[in-house]
User: What shape does this take?
Amino acid sequence: MGPHSSQDFTAHWAKHELGEVVVSAKEIQARVKELGAQITKDYASNPPLLVCVLKGAANFMTELMHAIELPVTIDFMAVSSYGAATKTSGVVRIVKDLDADIANRDVLIVEDVVDSGLTLNYLRQYLGSRNPRSLDVCALLLKEGEQRVEQELKYVGFSIPPEFVVGYGLDVNERYRNLDAIYTFTGTP
Ligand code: IMP
Ligand code: MG
Assistant: This one.
């Protein structure tokens, strides 16, 4: 099984810059349903405020909230940590803050990928200072062995090898967010 041999490889228009399918569209859909069911159970008596970290988690957030059978509320934050490169700088900048007051709320941060963990670590401290009742994380992807900050992640979709990936919200220079599966990126950033 080499690159592009997977049956669900349908992104012909991006093929020249993509390697292996790391997580297929079907696998993502199934896992998102499971995560939604688990969150539905865990938060049954306290529907959470879902905080989507833009832009990478937008795709995941949309499908995850469909799978949660509770009256959740949603909000969005935008942070910038990478610039145009593919490795983190460790410097996090808040580009868009929350609209909602999170004091005494059960907050669930919805993230696309935890790589070094620096972005999430910063976000947790930033939001934690506003006195939420609980503050937890649902990350679609966790890169194995890359964390520079130990993270407690309540929900993780998939653990993946420490390679740069694109698709299902994840970008390289803002491209390939619209792929429905997650692929390794083989082009030049
Ligand atoms: P961290 O601070 O190193 O954990 O990086 C987290 C952020 O970097 C994520 O929210 C993504 O926006 C971005 N990122 C990390 N790894 C990847 C990747 O493989 N592809 C695309 N974006 C990534
Ligand atoms: Mg990004």
Notes: Residues 25-42 form the longest helix (18 residues).
